[in-house]
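User: Sequence in, structure out. Go.
Assistant: Echoing your sequence, followed by the structure tokens.
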Amino acid sequence: MFTLLVRHSARKIPTLRGTWQNFDGRTRNCFHDLEGDMDLAEAFLKHIFKYVLSTCPEDMEFFNQRIDNSVLATADNIINNKFERITYTDAIALLEKADTTFEYPVQWGLDLQSEHERYLAEQLFKKPVIVTDYPVEIKAFYMRLNNDEKTVRAMDILAPKIGEIIGGSQREERLEVLEQRIQSQGLNPADLWWYLIYVAMVLFLTLALVWI
């Protein structure tokens, strides 16, 4: 299932490119863990870029000549490369070793800024990068908690010349853990009763489908 609509963000936007309100597409994928989400997102991006290049070649050539002469090369990079996959922890370690000076600090527990994302995708790996397993403190309560209880099953796709282009996560389906996560962020589970019921219904229907 997917939606295409205006979205309002209720969380703090960590990058200068982010906005409180934007127009975006969202998918809901049954029976997917984070690996499935990453596979789908990578295939989705490749399909979009292939489709645009094949159906609008004149427009893309115009953009390449008049706007940015790396447009076609960037599209080719996304289409023809296997996306690199690294954890947030590994990304921070690589950024700390970088032979460059960043405007924003690099530290485990802080969100990545656009300059960090573009360094990873453009200078280090020179292709799209998927960063996974972000610290629990900087991600929403509904993202599934990892066994280390320090990180969550979230991912961002970073593209050369762009930065973050897709974000996603595996949702938390364990009701007890979900309630604990809600409380840890200073929220009252009673105020989110509708979300807890939604998760319980999805879990019940998923189990029912498995046993049919």
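User: And one key feature?
Assistant: Helices lie at 34-55, 57-66, 71-80, 88-96, 114-124, 175-184, 193-211.
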